[in-house]
UniProtKB/TrEMBL annotation:
Family named by the database record: Belongs to the EPSP synthase family. MurA subfamily.
Binding-site residues, phosphoenolpyruvate: 22-23
Catalytic reaction equation(s): phosphoenolpyruvate + UDP-N-acetyl-alpha-D-glucosamine = UDP-N-acetyl-3-O-(1-carboxyvinyl)-alpha-D-glucosamine + phosphate
Keywords: Cell cycle, Cell division, Cell shape, Cell wall biogenesis/degradation, Cytoplasm, Peptidoglycan synthesis, Pyruvate, Transferase
InterPro entries on file: Enolpyruvate_Tfrase_dom, Enolpyruvate_Tfrase_sf, MurA_subfamily, RNA3'P_cycl/enolpyr_Trfase_a/b, UDP_GlcNAc_COvinyl_MurA
Annotated UDP-N-acetyl-alpha-D-glucosamine binding sites: 93, 122-126, 305, 327
2-(S-cysteinyl)pyruvic acid O-phosphothioketal: residues carrying this PTM: 117
RNA-binding as UniProt keyword: no
Enolpyruvate transferase domain location: 7-406
Cellular location(s): Cytoplasm
Name the UniProt record assigns to this protein: UDP-N-acetylglucosamine 1-carboxyvinyltransferase
GO biological process: cell division; cell wall organization; peptidoglycan biosynthetic process; regulation of cell shape; UDP-N-acetylgalactosamine biosynthetic process
List of catalytic residues: 117 (proton donor)
């Protein structure tokens, strides 16, 4: 078993380059399947497991893929509509985008229900509602979603819940539907704009991405293009939180400061110093933090994906902090592990109540999802002693070169393999 070891107590200092966004990458890669001709080149791809799995899925579908460094080139001209009820699609959440992309390209698809972080119920009813409105017949058979449409026709679709995945998935199918599709109550995350930008470069006509009404004019054909992925605001936010937690001072490069505002605002409210300049953000920790309340909301609210690392940071703040996750009902599996490290946190429904400041100390912990792992890394960096974290594979799904980046900032982190007796 592999473990991530974190020796805490050192302030993070220096500069860190932020990678391309995971949640954009895993939507842009399946979007390349919509190009009937030409090559689609995606730049600034993060080196993460979700991207590697997606590359394999594309190859299984008959696309020609070259992946070198942070660039992927996809030739989807010879694509085949392979059924994927099981296997790799179960390894990541974003495999649900194959439904929209293949429905758009072929008018039919069979895709297994997605995997991804276990955060409580994660239904896809809004995706299905959207596909049905576009004219698809959708059935669930033995854990797979079967979609078929004789013709896809543009429609007006009102999302009952603001969903990143449903908004993007409907866009993917709608770019190949006849006529206009209007998505109302659409999600506004920057990753949605990124996908709309790629699709527009491929020849689609999309307006309103980034607002809650998106209009898509379907096109009979789309072609390859070149696109560079936006910076990962969640990776950036994690380093900001870690810098504040260790009372360090770091500059994040290659970021869009506007995307980081929800976390910058909360860090400032606690007492940290944040300075923005062009594509960089400086985060400077201070000696005293006051507790704050955090409520996760769809963008531009505080992102649920930073709730877990932020909870770790709040153990170092004076007074009582309340962290409410309005997106996922049970995204608190990190809390028990933080308590092992000395935190005083009680979970009451959707809210974690954190009493601080409590000193943290290194312990053996286990991550059960990606951002739970990030919260334990933050806690480990803040703690006295060595933290041994199992569940490293979760980190690898979403953080490019985490140890290298942290080491460059002066942290002591390394991996260890232990062999279990049988
Ligand atoms: C690959 C990817 O981009 N993952 C992100 C995406 O996940 P994902 O796309 O799965 O999240 P959604 O935005 O769809 O989910 C938001 C909320 O809507 C609910 N819902 C969603 C769809 C649906 O059909 N029915 C429904 O009820 C979900 O259970 C959740 O409570 O956005 C989440 C919210 O910002 C992030 O935490 C994930 O990192
Ligand atoms: C929840 C997340 O990922 P996914 O939706 O891919 O499981 C995340 O990135 O925090």
């Amino acid at each position: 078993m592999e473990k991530l070891m974190v020796k805490g107590g050192r302030p993070l200092m220096g500069q860190v380059e932020i990678s391309g966004a995971k949640n954009s990458a895993v939507a842009l890669i399946p979007a390349t399947l919509l190009a009937d001709d030409g090559l689609t080149v995606i730049e600034n791809l993060p080196a993460i497991q979700d991207v590697r799995i997606y590359k394999e899925i594309l190859e299984d579908l008959g696309a020609k893929v070259e992946h070198a460094g942070d660039e992927m080139t996809v030739d989807a001209s010879q694509l085949e509509n392979v059924m994927m009820p099981n296997g790799k699609v179960k390894k990541l959440r974003a495999s649900y985008y194959l439904m929209g992309a293949l429905l758009g390209r072929f008018g039919e698809a069979v895709i297994g229900l997605p995997g991804g972080c276990d955060l409580g119920p994660r239904p896809i009813d809004q995706h299905i509602k959207g596909f049905e409105a576009l004219g698809a017949h959708v059935a669930q058979e033995e854990g797979a979603i079967c979609l078929r449409a004789a013709r896809l026709r543009g429609a007006r679709i009102y999302l009952d819940v603001v969903s990143v995945g449903a908004t993007i998935n409907i866009m993917l199918a709608a770019v190949r539907a006849e006529g206009q599709t209007v998505i109302e109550n659409a999600a506004k995350e920057p990753e949605i704009i990124d996908v709309a930008t790629l699709l527009s470069s491929m020849g689609a006509r999309i307006t309103g991405a980034g607002t809650d009404v998106i209009r898509i004019q379907g096109m009979p054909r789309l072609s390859g293009c070149r696109h560079s992925i936006i910076p990962d605001r969640i990776e950036a936010g994690t380093y900001m939180i870690a810098a504040a937690g260790t009372r360090g001072s770091i500059t994040l490069n290659q970021v869009i400061p506007k995307h980081l505002e929800p976390v910058s605002a909360k860090l400032r409210e606690m007492g940290a110093i944040i300075r923005e300049s062009g594509e960089s953000v400086l985060v400077q920790g201070t000696d005293y933090y006051r507790g704050v309340d955090v409520k996760t909301l769809p963008y531009p609210g505080f992102p649920t994906d930073l709730q877990q690392p932020f909870t770790a940071l709040l153990t170092g703040a004076e007074g009582t902090s309340m962290v409410t996750d309005n997106i996922y009902s049970s995204r608190f599996r990190h809390v028990g592990e933080l308590c092992r490290m000395g935190a005083d946190i009680r979970v009451d429904g959707r809210t974690a109540v954190i009493r601080g400041a409590t000193p943290l100390y290194g312990a053996e912990v286990k991550a059960t999802d990606l951002r739970a792992a990030a919260s334990m890394v933050v806690a480990g960096l803040m703690a006295r002693g060595v933290t041994e974290m199992a569940g490293v594979e979760h980190i690898d799904r979403g953080y490019e070169h985490l140890e290298e980046k942290l080491k460059q900032l002066g942290a002591e982190v390394w991996r260890e393999h232990s062999y279990q007796r049988v």
